[in-house]
Design goal:
With 141 residues, this protein is of the alpha+beta class. The chain has 2 domains: 31 residues; 105 residues, Immunoglobulin-like (Sandwich). It contains 1 helix and 9 strands; from the N terminus they run H-E-E-E-E-E-E-E-E-E.
Length: 141
Amino acid sequence: MKPAQKITLAVLLLLFAAVKILLLLWWQGKQSTVHALPCNPAAEGCRFDGTAHLRLTGADPHRPFAATVSGLPPHTQSVSLSFAMRGMDMGFNRFDLHRDPNGIWRNDTLRLPVCSLSRHDWIAEWTVDGKRYQADFQTQQ
């Protein structure tokens, strides 16, 4: 390879890296802030955005359970929920909630991911029209 070709290749690689870094910075800037709430969605539930309320009913690592979100404005377009653990990748486990005739968003077929370490400390992460929230909860052993 000629020296001019090496220089051209090096410049192209540097340009590619710069574009990649700029795209990463742009993408990170587009991510919405996660609002961590000091509540337990599996016990008293979590109030957010003034009137909205998330509640997990019967959260169990071994069987399906339910989630409801009430008090959202009628123009709300989407509500989803997923579960994580600190320091662990729990894979993709997003659940969409659907609005019932009373305006309550629900899903009665949620399942927690399998934890190979038998931990019971969970993080509920929910999104309402792109706005993100999270709260910690525990399941029974």
